[in-house]
Amino acid sequence: MELQKEVILATAFVFHILLALSLVQPAKATSQVNILSHMYFVDYNGFCHVVGEVENTGAQAIESVKITATFYDSNDIMITSEFNYTYLKVLLEGRKSPFEIILHDTTQSELVDHYSLSVDFSATQTLPLGLRILSDSWYVDGGGWLHITGEVKNTEYQTATNVKIVATFYDDVGNVLDCESSKVHDLASNQSAPFEILLTMTGTVPSVVSYALTAESIQYAIIPELSMIVLLPLFMILASIVIVIKRTTIHHLR
Hints:
The protein has 3 helices and 14 strands. The chain is an alpha+beta fold. It has 3 domains: 50 residues; 91 residues, Sandwich (Immunoglobulin-like); 95 residues, Immunoglobulins (Immunoglobulin-like, Sandwich), CATH 2.60.40.10. Strands 3, 4, 5 and 7 form a 4-stranded antiparallel sheet that branches. The longest helix has 22 residues. The two termini are 15 Å apart.
C-alpha cells in the first residue's frame, strides 16, 4: 500500500512539472543576428570572396538575412559594396548559416585591403522540423577537390520541395574557410535521397579540419542531431522516480 502511494505521488509530481512548463509564457520575441566569423580570399579568377557564418541569437525565426560587404583600399577609401543572402532562407532560433559575397571585378579585387559587414533581416514564422541527414562522409580526390556525400530524408507527411544541403567548412580553430551547397530533387513523405557537395578551391582544402551540414526546403527545416538534449531534464526526472520506486520496493521487501 505504501509503495502504491509513493508511485502515485511521484507520478503526480511529474504531471505538475509538465503542466507548469506548458503554462510558462514565452518572453516577447526579439530578433538578433551575430556574425560569428568571416574572412576573405582571392580566387584563381582574381575575384575577391568574403565568406562567413551568422547565428540567430534572438527568440524568433528570421528570413532573408542579407549580408552587405563594403570594401576599402589601404588608404581606407571605399572601393565598392556587394551583398548576398545567407544560404538558409529561414534561420530558426539558435541556428547558424554560412554566407558568401563575391566581388566580380578583378581590378577592384586587387585594391581590396579590408572590408566591413552589415546585416539586415526580417522576422518570420518558424519552419517545422522535417529533414534529417541520415549519413555523411568525406574524401579528397586526386585533383584536390573535397567531396561530402550523404543521404537526406523527409521525415514528415508533406512533400519537401527545393531541398538544399549546405556545408560550412572550418579551420582548426573553428573559423569559416568556405561554404558550398547542393540541391536534391523534391522528397515525398518518408523519402530519402543521396547528395554530394564539392569544395573545389584546392588552395583551401588542405586547411579544412571540420565541416557542418544543414538543410532546408520550402516546407521544413533540418532536425538538429542534438535535439534529444531538450528531453534530458524529463529523462532525469523519470530516472529519479525509478530510483525512488526501486529503493522503496527494496525497503518493503526487507
